[in-house]
């Protein structure tokens, strides 16, 4: 852990037991059928506050020259996520909890058409995410059965993240798609993960995912400034 991150974690070490207790209480809600609607709503806002407080650490560690809107959240049957919108990049990060799978960060690459301009550092950052948690790239929802059939040979590799990323990009170029979808980038931590480590690695992961989105956005930004 670098010195800056260590100081951020140490400054918030007293909050961690409360965060863990809130998460455990939230995850036990399915076992409490007698829980009133008011109590459920209260619990929802408490877990949202925990996610919000941890996201503040993400921002502090990243020291981004950006503004984030995190006033909205999305609820589903298994949990919720904060919807974190970057003002500069106009992209969205989802920092959430799933009562069965753990905590996670989910995002998309907004300016994916610029992938061809990326250096090796972009792919090094991509691969480094696997060292921080359970990192996956979700399938592009636009990859229909028709596309899989048309490009059958390209869909046989399910193991290489870089190959699958480039596959979606190349198909997008060949099909002349205006907006290329590389799929969702998700990193998660199960409940067996040491919570200090989870907070630490979520800070590192958020910074990397932001940096990757920034690298893609910067190309478009430079093109706009030249016009």
TrEMBL record:
Superkingdom of the source species: Bacteria
Protein name: Uncharacterized protein
